[in-house]
Amino acid sequence: AKASLMGSIAMIVSATCELFGGSLQDAMARRKLLVINGVAGLLIYSWACLFLYLDWFTFTAAIILAILQGLRSGLTGGVSNLLLRDVVPSEQLPQAMAVNQGRDAAIEFGGAPVGGLLLGISRVFPFLTTAILALIQTLSAWRLKGSFAPPPSEKSPISISGLFDGFRWILSSRLMRIIVFAGNPVFSLFN
């Protein structure tokens, strides 16, 4: 029950922060955000390893780490899809997006069994593995060539009025209303 609570906390924080994460991703250089995402993951999962090693991994520590992971995911989690537009030629973009989403789906479905296997080896292994992968992500993003700056905008993309503009757009589109009000609750039941 406590593990489910951690997942729920991370998901709620992530979903809440995605509203602002989209604006942040529109305002900042995407490579920088990908590096920030990697460093945040490295720190979060290194702290988890340290807490386990020092026997400080309490329920409170787990809640704090879940909140931090939710913040990381919500604010910078979708930046790799945006970055693809800057890296891949437009004629190859559909294939690259499909590969990226397939990779994400494989991680989503395979993560729990692999995590369980690593947990069977040692309590620290799932966290250590994720920290190492975050380090690899950070170094890979850091080595990308190019500015990957967002397109210039007349107004700041990070604003309350921009947030409400997004809600108005969702409400004005029949497809988006169906996805938000029908699809998301159904998806949540199966996730």
Q: What does this entry show, briefly?
A:
This protein is mainly α.
Describe what you observe in this structure.
This protein is an all-alpha fold. It has helices spanning 2-27, 30-53, 59-76, 79-87, 93-121, 125-142, 160-172, 174-190. Helix 2 runs antiparallel to helix 4 (79-87) and helix 4 (79-87) crosses helix 5. The model has no long low-confidence stretch (mean pLDDT 86).
Beta fraction? under 5%
- Radius of gyration of CA atoms, rounded to a whole number: 18 Å
The averaged pLDDT comes out at 86
- N-to-C CA distance: 16 Å
| Order of helix and strand elements from N to C terminus | HHHHHHHH
Number of strands: 0
Percentage of residues assigned to helices: over 70%
